[in-house]
Amino acid sequence: MIYKNEKPAILMLKDGRYFQGIGFGASKIITGELVFNTITGAGYNETLTDPSYQGQIVVMTHPLVGNYGVPPWKKDEFGLTKYFESDSIKVSGFVVNECCKNPSHYESVKTLNEFLVEQDIPGIEWIDTRAITKILREEGVQIGLLAVCESGSRPNIEDLKKIVKEAKDPNLRHLASEVSTKEVIKYTPPNPIGTVVILDLGVKYNILRNFLKRNIETIIVPYNYTYDQIMSFNPNGVFISNGPGDPKVYVNPINICKKLINNTIPMFGICLGNQIIGLAAGGTSYKLKYGHRGGNKTVINIDTQKCYITSQNHGFCVRGFEKGGFKEFLKNIDDHSNEGIIHDNKPVFAVQFHPEAAPGPLDSTYLFDKFIKLMEI
């Protein structure tokens, strides 16, 4: 039953199956790739603003989301937005079982609903996110539709079926071009010990913080920069960032990585960066059935047998990179997919997960120190 001031909402799959719920956030109709995320009740602000979610409708498996509200757009000591991974929400739509209306946290300045309204993003609650997740696990991620109506109106199911049937897969777009910087941005900490150039395909702010905390001058360049433009900054190393979409689409970054490898330039990649470096090494990419998205993904180092609990957000993986002189040094314990590659004799490596997450008992931020050591600064 929809009450007087509630907004009717529909989450619809590509084949026309749908779930009815209550809308929050913006009142609009959007389409996108329907995926699920298994993080706990914490981390939704970072998820919403992660550029890797561009073009996706995200289903949160945790039953209550928004309980500590949304903090202000406050800057940290480096001039980066302190509590978010970018300067705006990047998901196309947000799906939760329950959206908290009365958050409690001393830094909260707005509710999750107000945040989505402000950013013009639709959300839906009071639907069975367990059932949706089960569908996506069994059938794979798929194109979906989210429609949030104004209160007092009703969705036209037949019209929505036509819209979702014609919806395009966002992975066919050059999604990185939609989230990459449009100009060169330079961050210079006091007394920098070296310089890294970041090829921005959708870089997360926490990655930048990890370089800046280590006194590395960080230069962010657009996705379409050339090898020569990158090297004109005379960097000690080059970082290939995370980002959304199918890695095969990114021909220019792949070619840049080929030249960096051939010229023995220190290079580090995360997530999409891992896939692009793997493709540059002669490997191939493939799409996972339902992806790895969450904060509890288990990764093991093949050589040391040390295990890490990692944060991940990707729908594609890479294999066959061994022909380019690389080997796998990390793998996923659950499905044995690749989680990290390293060159046999050149200062190049990459990981599929996100080591920039806050340090913990099984910390993987040491990978930034590993890269700095390879840069020999």
Mean pLDDT: 96
CATH class of the largest domain: Alpha Beta
Question: How would you name the CATH homologous superfamily of the largest domain?
Answer: Class I glutamine amidotransferase (GATase) domain
Number of strands: 19
Number of helices: 10
Structural class: alpha/beta
CATH architect. name of the largest domain: 3-Layer(aba) Sandwich
Largest pleated sheet: 10 strands, mixed
Rg is 21 Å
Give the low-pLDDT segments. none
| Ends distance | 64 Å
CATH fold field value of the largest domain: Rossmann fold
Helical proportion, percent range? 10-25%
Q: How much of the residues is beta strand, in percent? A: 25-35%
Which series of helices and strands comes N to C?
EEEHEEEEHEHEHHEEHEHEHEHEEEEEH
Our count of domains comes out at 2
Shape: globular
Adjacency order of strands in the biggest sheet = 10-12-11-13-14-19-18-17-15-16
